[in-house]
């Protein structure tokens, strides 16, 4: 009998040190590991395999997504009013809400759902959900014991209440003031998984303050819309109905056998290894990148792709990454709030489906020392949607042969340069995290210094504008590329080469924010970069409305911010010195130094001005991020201490017995003894954690625990490579990275 998929992953809080949840969560798994010889098939695979090509049929693609077309067909009048509400914020009548809810429920029930869940994104890195049945009591019945009936109305769709104090909130909620509410994001369609219809939702306190990642993202998109239309109007584009941001994400991840995962307490507690020596060969020969996928992973990705297609997520690409055991997948881009929802849905589905395949998926930014880590590349563009008949759009981040395209691109790129120069601290806070501190600048990801790479020719054109040149002149015209043989056709490629060392490179029709960490909710990063760009659109428009020409306003902005444009090698060891001393850029080298800037008066004014965060929300979010960092490092420290004391030290004693009475022990006695000294120092540092505000605590663990952990790890990893293989108590990197192949 075919096995049914496991439910959505259940999140288990590990924050006994604090009540709020953190990203350091573990996914509950059954103890039984399914044998590889009987890899189960998902429902999507069964459905797709009924006939050749069925997975590509219109009846399959997006079948479990309640699209606009399905809503329009089911409730045309209500849909028309919903369209107006989406654009203007106009209230919907109770009747319209009920009609939308009924259409939604009827569709979901046909797809096998009996429950619904408001699916939302608290400030913790993983989404939340509460399952409610499409059922209620029939209170119109005269019976004392009311009968049950199928039910789902507009009130249930547009409002759900929960306890806001039990989620990370930075002091915005307390046990005695705990009310918080969900409401459907009307521009993100519900989807069905298993027996539940998931409703992408916002999450705010009784006060209206945001307790989630989605609400600020939607506010920032509104800011981009307001300031983008204003700017485009000032360069003569009057027929813009809306300005939208789009995101195409690339998700990196490691695959580990579940059996090995369950024998690594650090992976279970921290999602990364806190000890572990790289094998002699891992990624040095670059054999893995785009290589043939291991069979187990290939079967898993095939199943995952069909599940995502069924859910309406257009995942088109998957491949091996550089590191052994590492892979990447990516869908086609979408409007930002939907793209973020698709990514969160994808990560949940990946973990749940991996359990069926006897695998574990690790998204951590740096799960294995000495091996490339996981990022989530954020391909970001801003487009003006035309109001003219036939629609269409103009991409503000794509140059072209037409002069208007050139003007639009140069103005938008100059504004982005200003945003990074003036608000580099905000952009840096878009990629913070204890895990990302291991990754940024590690010859695999951009450095922690925020700069813009628009392309060498674009930079030259910027300098020409500053000196008095016109906005027009850069077309970004693609160049022809020949392979030098007759077996291939000539192709066209982007006008500029690709710079993988830049945190914000231009890629022909978009900018790619490469610094986001693998497990992150992208809503946070996109909220911040949207706000920064909206602010620069506003500053440019103020200059033009104040009397400057578009050319002169752009030149003025570039003159003040072109130092943030860097087209060189971001891995050059001289770059940090040049960036800080010659260009005045910030080098916020780790999470705590970046977070020190987040709630500054400048940033409170920035977010408040554009309606993204109130000052209280900025401070609360800073507290949540500081506490998350503190808890993450604390959990990692405690995990390391327990692994050393309860497993590695006993293994050392056992290993030494092998050499009793011989001269073969070599350096082992001294090396093993040094481990006790290093752990004792770490324990002392852990015991000395101050009971203070979260910012002070975060700085303490960064300054004291992180280097003490590094010292313990250095000794532990040296021990691993000399200890008898059968005595070492944990799966090694070789087993973790290749054991499932």
From TrEMBL:
SUPFAM superfamilies: Glutamine synthetase/guanido kinase. One of its GO terms (molecular function) is glutamine synthetase activity. SMART domains: Gln-synt_C. PROSITE patterns: GLNA_ATP, GS_CATALYTIC. Belongs to the glutamine synthetase family. Pfam families: Gln-synt_C (PF00120), Gln-synt_C-ter (PF18318), GSIII_N (PF12437). It comes from the Eukaryota. This is GS catalytic domain-containing protein. It comes from Diacronema lutheri. Residues 213-648 form the GS catalytic domain.
């Amino acid at each position: 009998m075919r096995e049914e998929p496991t439910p959505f992953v259940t999140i288990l809080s590990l924050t006994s040190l604090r009540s709020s949840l953190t990203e350091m969560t573990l996914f509950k798994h059954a103890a039984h590991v399914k044998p590889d010889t009987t890899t189960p098939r998902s429902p999507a695979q069964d459905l797709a395999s009924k006939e050749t090509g069925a997975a590509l049929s219109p009846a399959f693609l997006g079948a479990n997504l309640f699209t606009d077309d399905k809503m329009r067909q089911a409730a045309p009048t209500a849909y028309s009013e919903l369209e107006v509400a989406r654009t203007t914020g106009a209230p919907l009548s109770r009747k319209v809400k009920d009609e939308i809810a009924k259409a939604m429920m009827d569709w979901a029930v046909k797809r096998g759902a009996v429950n619904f869940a408001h699916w939302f994104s608290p400030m913790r890195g993983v989404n939340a959900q509460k399952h409610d049945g499409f059922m209620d009591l029939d209170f119109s019945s005269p019976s004392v014991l009311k009968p049950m009936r199928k039910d789902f109305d507009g009130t249930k769709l547009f409002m759900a209440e929960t306890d806001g104090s039990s989620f990370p909130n930075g002091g915005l909620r307390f046990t005695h003031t705990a009310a918080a509410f969900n409401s459907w994001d009307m521009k993100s369609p519900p989807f069905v998984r298993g027996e539940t219809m998931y409703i992408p939702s916002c999450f705010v306190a009784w006060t209206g303050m945001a307790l989630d990642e989605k609400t600020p993202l939607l506010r920032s998109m509104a800011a981009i819309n307001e300031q983008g239309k204003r700017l485009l109007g000032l360069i003569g584009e009057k027929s813009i109905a809306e300005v939208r941001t789009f995101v195409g994400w690339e998700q990196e991840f490691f695959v580990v056998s579940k059996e090995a995962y369950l024998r690594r307490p650090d992976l279970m507690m921290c999602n990364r290894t806190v000890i572990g020596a790289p094998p002699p060969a891992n990624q040095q020969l670059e054999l893995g990148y785009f290589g043939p996928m291991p069979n187990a992973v290939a079967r898993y990705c095939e199943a995952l792709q069909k599940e995502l297609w069924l859910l309406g997520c257009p995942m088109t690409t998957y491949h091996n990454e550089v590191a052994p055991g590492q892979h990447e997948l990516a869908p086609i881009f979408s409007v930002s709030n939907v793209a973020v929802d698709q990514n969160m849905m994808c990560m949940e589905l990946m973990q749940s489906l991996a359990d069926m395949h006897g695998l574990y998926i690790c998204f951590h930014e740096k799960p294995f020392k000495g091996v490339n880590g996981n990022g989530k590349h954020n391909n970001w563009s801003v487009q003006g949607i035309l109001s003219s008949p036939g629609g269409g759009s103009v991409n503000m981040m794509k140059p072209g042969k037409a002069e208007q395209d050139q003007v639009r691109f140069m103005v938008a790129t100059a504004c982005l340069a200003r945003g990074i120069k003036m608000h580099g601290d905000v952009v840096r806070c878009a990629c913070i995290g204890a895990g990302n501190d291991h990754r940024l600048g590690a010859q695999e990801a951009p450095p922690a210094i925020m700069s813009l790479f628009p392309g060498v020719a674009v930079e030259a054109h910027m300098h020409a504008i500053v000196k008095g040149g016109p906005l027009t002149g850069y077309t970004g015209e693609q160049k022809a590329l020949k392979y030098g043989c007759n077996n291939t056709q000539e192709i066209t490629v982007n006008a500029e080469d690709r710079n993988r060392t830049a945190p914000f490179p231009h890629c022909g029709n978009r900018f790619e924010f490469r610094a986001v960490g693998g497990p992150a909710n992208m809503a946070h990063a996109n909220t911040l970069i949207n706000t920064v760009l909206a602010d620069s659109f506003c500053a440019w428009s103020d200059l033009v409305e104040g009397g400057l020409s578009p050319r002169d306003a752009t030149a003025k902005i570039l003159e003040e911010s072109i130092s943030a444009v860097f087209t060189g090698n971001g891995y050059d060891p001289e770059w940090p010195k040049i960036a800080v001393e010659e260009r005045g850029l910030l080098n916020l080298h780790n999470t705590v130094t970046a977070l020190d800037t987040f709630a500054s008066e400048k940033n409170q004014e920035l977010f408040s001005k554009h309606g993204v965060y109130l000052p209280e929300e900025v401070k609360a979010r800073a507290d949540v991020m500081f506490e998350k960092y503190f808890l993450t490092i604390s959990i990692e420290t405690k995990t390391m201490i327990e692994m050393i004391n309860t497993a590695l030290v006993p293994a050392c004693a056992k290993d030494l017995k092998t050499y009793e009475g011989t001269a073969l022990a070599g350096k082992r006695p001294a090396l093993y003894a040094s481990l006790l000294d290093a752990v004792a120092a770490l324990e002392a540092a852990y015991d000395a954690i101050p009971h203070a505000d979260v910012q002070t605590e975060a700085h303490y663990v960064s300054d004291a625990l992180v280097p003490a952990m590094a010292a313990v790890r250095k000794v532990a990893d040296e021990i691993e490579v000399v200890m008898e293989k059968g005595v070492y108590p944990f799966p090694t990197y070789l087993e973790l990275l290749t054991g499932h192949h």
